[in-house]
Structure formats: structure tokens, C-alpha cells
Design brief:
This protein has 278 residues and is α+β, with helices and mostly antiparallel strands. It has 6 helices and 15 strands.
Amino acid sequence: MIFSSSLNLTIANIGLKLTLESKAASATAAQFEGFIGGTPTYHFQVQCSDQLYRQTNKTPQVNITSKELRISAPMSFEVVLNRRTRNGLIRYSTHRMDTRGTRPPVCLYAALKSLYAVLLCERTGLLLHASAVALDGGAITFIGPSGAGKSTLCKTFTDDNILNDELVAVTLEDGYALVHATPFSYSFDTPRKRRHVPLKTAFILQKSQTAYTFPLSPSEAFPLILQCVPIPQGDPQIEVDAFKTASHLTTMVDCRRLAAAPDSRATIHVLHTILKDM
């Protein structure tokens, strides 16, 4: 395989240099447009294998030693990073959806998400199943699994305020929690752009017959946030790191439960009412 193109990708201040074939580079750059640039910390050769993707419903596995970081998802991708040289290899499977020229290869996209999830955990950060909106005085997040209503709530704000509607990064720095935009979303046609905002309030979503909101204590919010952290399994230290960061996060920001009613208009009314009082 001939490596003919390179691009630097920076998310939450973690920079990767990816060297890959020009077609994949062009599609990846189109999706990650607002995140291209920065000084890379790691350099990866990226290869597309002849293996066709097959869904296995298995969570990616991670194994970390002093010499090597390895993340693997059977029939999807494998990431290997030399910890000392900071050089690595990403090998990903072919997917039937890869014919779309404006989206990165599906399995490469999945590999990058898993890689950033691990690297963030090592740096007092988290990748979160959450949407985020930048407002005056700080950002708010809507945390919850797919279908919880994250995108619906985001769409009530102007596009320029939205950091992401699906996955955001959160880092703890100098006593502050910062929420970072990421490119990991298929919902918006407008590319996100690289930026971060102090996190003020985390709304944890729950489906309900009626819409309402109430404050959560750190001990109540902690398990709800932790279950929305998509990290590969298999390495105890990564799990400990995620545990500690999620625990600290709940003491640094205002956490609230937001019950989402079937009628989204009721939920939106409750949300914007509470925001006026905050």
C-alpha cells in the first residue's frame, strides 16, 4: 500500500498525525474539517485491510503496557501504539458504507473514537455520550445514551452554539471542567470546529411521562455519568482513571436530572425555564 497523504488531527488538545491513502485522507478531512491542524503528539500509519467488516456486538478491548498500547475490535479495527517512540499503526476493515466520499471510512472512524477515549482517560479526561451547547457564562451538556433526546435539545439552540450533539470530550484542568467539541457526529451537515468552554451544568437525561428537572448530588450523578463513558474494556488502569475523573467531575459542576417527556415541547419548555433562572 502506498501512503500518499498526511493530515494532523487535534481533539481536546491531543494531536495525531495520520498518514494514509489519499482517498481516505480526503474523506476524513471533510468530516474533521474544523479539527485539522495543531502539533501532533503521535504519528500513525493507517492501512485499510481486505477484510470486510462484520458486526460482532463485542466491545473494543484495550491492553496497555509500559511499551505498547493496543486496542482491537474483531472484524473492525486494530490500533497499536509504541509508547516510547509515539509511532503506531491503525488497521481497519472495509465497510459497505465506505463508498460515501464525504465521510471517513466507518471502521477508521470507530478506531479514532476508541483511541481518543483511551488517550483522554490517561490525561484526566473523558469521552462522553453527551451533547453540549456553549452559552454565556459557560457550557451545558445533555448526557445520555442514544435516543435519550440529546440532539432534539441541541436543535433548540443556534448552530454556532452547539459543540456536538453526540460525543464530547471533557477534561479537568486547573480546578476547572472544560467541555471540548469533537467531530464525532453524523447528525449535523455543518462541521464542528475545535474549541473548548468551561462546563457549568450537566443535565443527565431520563425518559419520563412528564418533563421536570431537579438537582443531583455528586453520589447520585456519578454512576449515571460513568455509564455514558464509552471506553474499551480490558485494562484495569483505564477503568480506574475513568472512575476517578467522573467522580471529580460531579464535584466540579452543577449536575441535574432532566426528565424528557414524549412531547419534546414540554421538555424544551422546562429546560429553557430553568436556564433563565441559572
